[in-house]
Amino acid sequence: MGYVEKPMLLVNGIRLIDMAVNEVERAGLDAIFVTSRFTERTEKYLMDRGLEVFRGDGTGYMQDIQKALAEYRLTHPVLTLNSDLYYVVEGVVNRILSHYFAVDTPALTTVYPDGRHVGINIFDPIFGEQEEEKVILDESTVINIDTPADLERALWMSTLRREKDW
């Protein structure tokens, strides 16, 4: 988006990072928020809220996740959420977790009907390459905000949600 850290974007008065925090808390999960030198405002915001933060070196999303996994010595399934998601429907993470525990694959990824990745994944760090279950979500559930048009769609959906008291 160029002008602001995406996790700090406001949609209907709520920061995208707060939406992720709310989904994690709603699911009752412990969380480690992975940041980098590119998300310093987000990092400070999370730390000011007393949340656990691990700073990666910013070489790439998965590289930073892998470094956090190693630092915390995590050996159980891990849920990753991109911090630029607008949750149109609350409780999406709970739905994804329920689906994950009902299948036999060690990994799960969420995709839109056209195959684009949503940004919610579960994998087991003790395995290397993993067979993954794909869960199809549409943008009436969660919007990955990558472009100004995505942000406009999220703003529109939040207005509909507020007006209709979804």
TrEMBL record:
The keyword Metal-binding does not apply. Keywords: Transferase. Residues 1-117 form the MobA-like NTP transferase domain. One of its GO terms (molecular function) is transferase activity. This is NTP transferase domain-containing protein. InterPro entries: MobA-like_NTP_Trfase (IPR025877), Nucleotide-diphossugar_trans (IPR029044).
